[in-house]
Amino acid sequence: MLLGNHSSGKSSFINHVLGRDIQTTGVAPTDDSFTIVAPGPQDRDQDGPAVIGDPDLGFGPLRQFGPTLMHHVQLKIRSQVDSNFLIVDTPGMIDAPGNYSGMIQNNNTDGGMTGSSHASSMDRGYDFTGVVSWLADRADVVCLFFDPDKPGTTGETLSILLHALSGMDHKLLIVLNKADQFSKIHDFARAYGSLCWNLSKVIPRKDLPRIFTMCLPVEYQEKGKQQAQQQQSQSQSQSTNESTATNATNDASTIFQNSPTALQDLLSAREEVVAEVRKAPARRMDNWITGLHDAVAQLKMHATLLQDIQTRYNQLYWDKKWQEATVAMAGASVTALFVLYGMDFWAGSTDGGTAISGMVVAGMGTSTVLSTGGMMWYHGQQLQEWQALASKQEELFATFQRTHGRAIQEGDEYIAAVWHRIRPSLALALQTEGITSLARVTPADLDQLQHILKEDIPRLRRLASPPHYGK
């Protein structure tokens, strides 16, 4: 999957990798759709509803993002392309006025979006961030393109990096494209520094990931510039466009023409990126196993926390029931004793003693019923309050500390990351479904998940890994 600002070279890169002019290129935004490029026996295009409705393509879950997205998806099947994988080209990211303000400040601990960042995601008529996150989670390689004109200054791009691509470092390639357009070395230094500065705002680490500084072959640059010139002025002739594009390219690449070593570095970086993209099919199995491990780890923690909550709730529930049963039994016992021994005494001691004895028995029985019923109502209220309290962040964190105390003490960062990922979904399940409506988690369930993590997934890793001396 390719992401980036408009005019960052995504479409040109696709044409270069596949060896065909498939995507339209240009400086201005040329496409507002998610374009899926796939190899096939003959050229064919499909619109969004057909793509999402096809059960064999696997894009059906995108329907959850609404009808607007469905009309902004297209499939391009092309023959004679040099690939055996799908490439997803995304719409160029452009900021509307004021969208970037507060984006960083509105980032919460759950990794969600609030305020202006959420409004920005809906500017296209659908949840752009959610769609990108869904596609990136299923992609084997994600390329994030930047260009010299906007080196990381587009707020939507940084928001996507912060909210949609978090936790995907192992398959994310950050690319500064069109580096050969710099005519002065200090312009290149400023653009590269600006990109690093902006990335540091959304990547909370001292060491930034590698940035692939590259350029595309001149032929693709010239085609893109020609199309841009045609978009700007239809009255200009084709020959004028070619001359302008060629002169601009030659002027912009002066520092690299004078330094073959620097130009070779750009070409080498490009070949590395292309090689990583072409390795996507080989990484499919590794990414699938990684996704399986993460999913099972999250499910296991979710089940462990839920089991602890259910256990404590059941203990409280049966404590309350024992108290109610004790009160009911005590009242019934006292009433029975009075019936056995007290009624004869009252009946023989005074006139009308039998009536009085009956009233006493009735009163004692009524008191027992009322006290037991009142206690049941009060305990029901307490249980409801306890269920509501159990879904609060503070109580969930206390549950996490009880169940994973050793991992916390050892500073297990992976467990902490899994906790932050499952916390919102667990809280939502407790709030919407309730503890009593959720399936009961048994020790056998946890043992089975543990077996998958410790036995089955390592076995899959061994089968999928290439031969090495460690085997």
UniProtKB/TrEMBL annotation:
One Pfam family, short name: Dynamin_N
Alphabetical list of InterPro entries matching this protein: Dynamin_N, P-loop_NTPase, TRAFAC_Dynamin-like_GTPase
Gene3D superfamilies: P-loop containing nucleotide triphosphate hydrolases (3.40.50.300)
All residue ranges annotated as the Dynamin N-terminal domain in the record: 2-44
Region (Disordered): 226-254
Domain of life of the organism encoding this protein: Eukaryota
SUPFAM superfamilies named among the record's database cross-references: P-loop containing nucleoside triphosphate hydrolases
Name the UniProt record assigns to this protein: Dynamin N-terminal domain-containing protein
Native organism: Entomoneis paludosa
